[in-house]
Amino acid sequence: MNDDLRSALHEAVPEPPEPSGWAGAARDRARRTARLRASGAGLLALGLVAAVLWPLLGGQGGRTAVPAGASAATSSVEPALPVNTDCTDDLTGAKTLAARGNLKVTRMSLCPRSDGPTFTTPIDAVTTDGSALYDQVQALPAERSADPDCDRKYERRYLLVFTLGDGSTQALEAATPNACTSEDRQTAQRWAQLLKLVTAAWTTQRTATPPAEVARGCLPFDRPGLLVPHTDALSAATLCQYDSNERLQAEARATSEELATLALDLATNTSRASNIDSRLDGAVLTVADAAGDPIVFWRVEGDQWFAFMPEGEQLFWQPGPEALDVLKLLTQRLQPFSPSPTATAPPPDPTPDCEGLTPSHAPAEIPITATRLRLCATGESTGQLVVPLDALTGDGVARVLNVVRSQPVLPTSRACRANLGPDFLLVAETDGQAPVVMVLQLYGCHVVGLQNQERGGADEAMSVYRAEIANQRNVQTGTSVRTGSLCGPWSSSPVAVMAPAPADLIAGRFCRYESREAQAKETALSDDDARLVAADLAQHSGKPAAVSCPLRVQPPPKLVLYNRFGDPLVLTGNCLGRYYFSTGIEGTDREWTPSPTATKRLNALFDR
Amino acid sequence: MEVMVSAPEQPASFDAFVTARSAALWRSAWLLTGDAHRAEDLVQTALAKTYPHFTRVGPGFEAYVRTAMFRTYVSWWRRRWTGELPGEVDTRPSADPDVALREDVRRALAALPRQQRAVVVLTYFDDLSGAQAAQVLGVSVGTIKSTLSRALAKLRTSPLLDGSER
């Protein structure tokens, strides 16, 4: 067996691809991770997760992107949920229930666990036949010792809480059938039978006494429903967009007509399956019934969705054309999630020319020329990228569009690299006509996308666009002023598409944060301070930024300087008095070690 | 018993390392994931994680990358734990006509939980000893032995690997 297995494995592996560009891609990815880590934004999510939590949605290879206004506002607050008061934060579950003796069970509640993956549990409690259920749960086959290869803390668990006649509570820790327990028939049976018991208990009570209505919108990230509603009983549908830190960014609620379309489609175009690709592609659709029990659908590649079911399989959904149209409409209507009044978000940088633009409005053809060509930011991956305020005009427009038109149309079935990168909207405007909006993706297949086709060569198009903007600026005085917050959120370190040279910086702001969630207090730098910082930066920077640091200042001090075209350069305190900054979307992170004079001036600024 | 291995050489540069050794890493990644794109993603994730430490690690960088790759693979499962049952490896049939063995092996591995799959690949494809595999996965040698035992028991009874005509 051993030699046969060894041979089989070696013979089975196909020829690997050429690792062309892998080293560079790894370096870029490592630097992006380091930048985010240093700025306190948290780790860039790994591989599959990171690459796909971008809010792109569309049909047949087209793209629909979130307008810049929606993505710029950020929130660090989770959606507020209605709560079951039995589910307190200090609740911990036991592996078994103690004997109840003569005490009756007066109520039962299902609660999420607070220390790991969990479910969305119902708000209502069951107040009938609790004693019988208690005894049935006690009689279930015992949970066996954990497989040492399975780390139990990563299991998706919930709590079944019994309140007894004397006011005491018994909380049972429970899970649902999963890969860890599938090999152990007894434990798998326990979870399966327990789930049936609780589902039946809640169904019985709700049939007799309908619960109070619970409004459900977007949920905290990755919180599937424990009790699954019937698709013919849905009362709400919400499209939800999360960032790479799993925070809710935007949402869009379906109208009653749209909900009806989705519900009908879900009733006919879903099936149970396993082995569904867990690659996530940005959008999450939460549907719920009147009791608030949700099904959370994740979008995977193509127009396919799936939802995790508590019994261990997945619910697979392939929407029909009408449902796809509804999903597109919801995407277009995504609005920034409004945080609670106690948290504040900085005002977005207004780019009125970008608002409401989506590629789905675009015609199929790339124009030969246009009056103006501009870039717009889209979605999460460009939330930290600042597009130029000025648009390209004149002959340069045709030159850029010609680059796009000369690229081959990509086949619909193709393999793309797994590298990460930003995406933009490239908007061609001609007076008196609707704009032609193209998506420019600097990742994966590096496409320039229209509604019905995708072409390659996004990098070349971006490179030529930037070169043409630079040429145009050579003959312009430039008086662009970027309004709105330049500092942005604490965790964000914006990078300019047209990264300014230190020598061109003319003014700036100093950003002070009192906490991670707080909006920055922005103070304009005096002309003298700005000149000193810019000159010092030009003279004492250039070294690659250090990846690790033994001591970080939190929150990091931040300075934002800009040139005469409004392109910002963000200096973020990195380590022990040093600052890092990015040299642009195709550049690298560099370090600035201020001179003693500059350090003294910066210390004075921070102490204000 | 201490396992003696020949001392690895310091790669000339990160780029040189990637050029020379990515293929070997990709092969292991393919056996883990069962999919060419996921395999590339896994290798690139490991390279991105380990690149900042290239100079510090020096000789033995490949073992370092391999460790990162296998632990990333296992932690992907943990990170995105959502009740998936084993077998989430892509088992869709390939258009390549010469893939009978490849499909059988892929599907047989797909029937194993991730950690069992990882141990099989480390010991039977990468030819690591139990101690080396334990070091890669950060578990005890005893865990490696018991995991491997369960994996082999499954594979022995798999109709995909018994050589029978189908």
From TrEMBL, chain A:
<feature type="transmembrane region" description="Helical">
    <location>
        <begin position="36"/>
        <end position="57"/>
    </location>
</feature>
<keyword id="KW-0472">Membrane</keyword>
<keyword id="KW-1133">Transmembrane helix</keyword>
<feature type="region of interest" description="Disordered">
    <location>
        <begin position="337"/>
        <end position="362"/>
    </location>
</feature>
<protein>
    <submittedName>
        <fullName>Uncharacterized protein</fullName>
    </submittedName>
</protein>
<feature type="compositionally biased region" description="Basic and acidic residues">
    <location>
        <begin position="1"/>
        <end position="13"/>
    </location>
</feature>
<keyword id="KW-0812">Transmembrane</keyword>
<feature type="region of interest" description="Disordered">
    <location>
        <begin position="1"/>
        <end position="26"/>
    </location>
</feature>
Automatic annotation (TrEMBL), chain B:
<dbReference type="InterPro" id="IPR013325">
    <property type="entry name" value="RNA_pol_sigma_r2"/>
</dbReference>
<dbReference type="InterPro" id="IPR039425">
    <property type="entry name" value="RNA_pol_sigma-70-like"/>
</dbReference>
<dbReference type="Pfam" id="PF04542">
    <property type="entry name" value="Sigma70_r2"/>
</dbReference>
<feature type="domain" description="RNA polymerase sigma-70 region 2">
    <location>
        <begin position="22"/>
        <end position="81"/>
    </location>
</feature>
<dbReference type="GO" id="GO:0016987">
    <property type="term" value="F:sigma factor activity"/>
</dbReference>
<dbReference type="InterPro" id="IPR036388">
    <property type="entry name" value="WH-like_DNA-bd_sf"/>
</dbReference>
<dbReference type="Pfam" id="PF08281">
    <property type="entry name" value="Sigma70_r4_2"/>
</dbReference>
<dbReference type="InterPro" id="IPR007627">
    <property type="entry name" value="RNA_pol_sigma70_r2"/>
</dbReference>
<keyword id="KW-0805">Transcription regulation</keyword>
<protein>
    <submittedName>
        <fullName>RNA polymerase sigma-E factor</fullName>
    </submittedName>
</protein>
<dbReference type="InterPro" id="IPR014284">
    <property type="entry name" value="RNA_pol_sigma-70_dom"/>
</dbReference>
<dbReference type="InterPro" id="IPR013324">
    <property type="entry name" value="RNA_pol_sigma_r3/r4-like"/>
</dbReference>
<dbReference type="InterPro" id="IPR014325">
    <property type="entry name" value="RNA_pol_sigma-E_actinobac"/>
</dbReference>
<dbReference type="GO" id="GO:0003677">
    <property type="term" value="F:DNA binding"/>
</dbReference>
<keyword id="KW-0731">Sigma factor</keyword>
<comment type="similarity">
    <text>Belongs to the sigma-70 factor family. ECF subfamily.</text>
</comment>
<dbReference type="GO" id="GO:0006352">
    <property type="term" value="P:DNA-templated transcription initiation"/>
</dbReference>
<keyword id="KW-0238">DNA-binding</keyword>
<keyword id="KW-0804">Transcription</keyword>
<dbReference type="InterPro" id="IPR013249">
    <property type="entry name" value="RNA_pol_sigma70_r4_t2"/>
</dbReference>
<feature type="domain" description="RNA polymerase sigma factor 70 region 4 type 2">
    <location>
        <begin position="103"/>
        <end position="155"/>
    </location>
</feature>
